[in-house]
Design goal:
single chain; 259 residues; four-stranded antiparallel beta sheet
């Protein structure tokens, strides 16, 4: 069975997950990191003032049943100025862009940025495909992240992705156990050098499945491109076009910056 997710719903689901992941942290953390969010029309905007990566400074969910007007875009721009961030990104899917989008962006002084390709697929179809995912090595263990491992899981994930600002790890750890979130780890077999209680964090791969259909996984640098025995493996490079054919969905979204 194939299900087609409307572009608007997919965009709203993604930005809602980012917002819940960040803004769902406790009030002291939100204050220390300068976390803020804004809900305007069908869109959500998010910002973390103290994060120099600016990764989370994004707004999405535009055009899902409501028009993208100059007033809506201006409100988001004002939000980023109030948050005192140097840049914010507007994520607007091409099928949802209004005919006057270029003129709207020009009125509020937006400049074109990067483009993203978003891929999605039905899990069962992918696993059953001839070139799908191989069986997990028996030396690896997949399991949920328990509350007492939340800090370890968050440390691996956030450090690997480069989010090293104090408080970012605590922010990620706070989503463990939150409704609609399920975190998983993949761990290597326990070795003599591992500390009591399980493998070292460097062997862990962390994923977070929230209220959006898909989330990133991560692995520490020394474990990348290696199997459980330490041998190097060669990654398979797949073009977005080929990946889209395999997964059945591809979406390009312009990334524009507030100046």
């Amino acid at each position: 069975m194939t299900t087609t997710v409307p572009f608007g719903l997919a965009e709203q689901t993604e930005i809602a997950a980012y917002t819940d992941f960040v803004a769902g942290a406790a009030a002291p953390l939100r204050e220390a990191l300068g976390i803020g969010s804004l809900h305007v029309g069908s869109a959500l905007a998010l910002a973390i003032r103290e994060d120099p990566s600016r990764f989370f400074n994004r707004a999405g969910g535009f055009g899902a049943g409501e028009p993208i007007t100059v007033d809506v875009v201006a409100q988001v721009c004002d939000f980023y100025r109030r948050q005192a961030v140097s840049q914010g990104a507007f994520m607007v899917a091409p099928p949802l862009q209004p005919p006057h989008w270029a003129a709207t962006a020009d009125k509020v002084n937006l400049t074109p940025g990067n483009r993203f390709v978003k891929l999605g697929c039905d899990i069962e179809s992918t696993l059953s495909a001839a070139d799908g995912v191989a069986a997990l090595d028996p030396g690896l263990r997949v399991g949920p992240v328990e509350p007492h491992h939340a800090q370890e899981w968050a440390t691996v994930m956030m450090t690997t992705f480069g989010f090293t600002t104090p408080g970012m790890i605590d922010m990620a750890a706070s989503c463990v156990g939150r409704p609609n979130w399920r975190q998983r780890t993949v761990r290597g077999r326990v070795r003599r050098s591992d500390p009591p209680g399980g493998p070292r964090p460097r062997s862990a791969v962390g994923t977070a499945h929230g209220p959006r259909p898909g989330s990133p996984g991560c692995r520490l640098p020394m474990a990348r491109r290696r199997d459980r025995s330490g041998r190097l493996w060669r990654p398979q490079h797949v073009s977005p076009q080929h990946a889209a054919r395999r997964t059945g969905a591809a979406l390009r979204a312009p990334h524009l910056a507030v100046v």
